[in-house]
Design brief:
Largest sheet: 7 strands, antiparallel
Number of strands: 7
Strand order of the largest sheet: 1-7-6-5-4-3-2
Radius of gyration: 19 Å
Helix content: 25-40%
Structural class: alpha+beta
Length: 173
């Protein structure tokens, strides 16, 4: 499986880069992460519980960071085993660039799965991988710029007010 995308993060590249190297931030941002420990130099150990289609498993694995170019680029390589569910392994090249809103984070992922996971088919696996990546970046954005959800909350209240006004016009109440 191959996947690539770019995401805008409302924080400077140095802050995004530091967050990607911090095990506590990774634990908070990786969907289903139970534990993330280790260091950039020695690599990280992670335990992640996920349900992919009908298969639910806890994956335990190693993650190594390499090709580190401060505030610009890094390569992530990892492998996890989920018992009878199978395994997942792969890598990602992550690039950071200054953008108008903070940082443009681009990534290219190449991964392989085996065991019961592989039997689910590429459509389910690819969809799940995209969903996981999207959720990670939503979590990262929330962690780095927590004021963002407040702005959305105010917007949602405004929409509710408009709906109430519309309903009021129809019913006269």
């Amino acid at each position: 499986m191959k996947m690539s995308d770019s995401k805008e993060i409302a924080a400077p590249p140095a802050e995004v880069y530091a967050a990607l190297l911090n095990p506590e931030v990774l634990k908070a941002c990786v969907p289903g992460a139970q534990e993330v420990s280790g260091s950039v130099e020695e690599g990280f150990e992670a335990s992640v519980t996920q349900k992919v289609g009908p298969v639910k498993a806890t994956f335990k694995g190693q993650v190594t960071l390499s090709d580190l170019i401060e505030n610009e680029k890094l390569t992530i390589t990892g492998e996890g085993k989920g018992g009878a569910a199978g395994f997942a392994k792969g890598g990602a090249v992550v690039s950071l660039a200054v953008s108008e809103t903070g940082t443009l984070l681009s990534y290219e992922v190449e991964a392989k799965v085996g065991g019961k996971l592989a039997q689910l088919g590429s459509r389910i696996i690819d969809g799940f991988a995209k969903k996981m990546a999207d959720q990670f970046f939503v979590n990262l954005q929330t962690h780095l710029a927590p004021e963002e959800p407040d702005a959305e909350g105010e917007e949602a209240e405004g929409e509710a007010g408009e709906k109430k006004g519309w309903f009021k016009k129809i019913t006269g109440n």
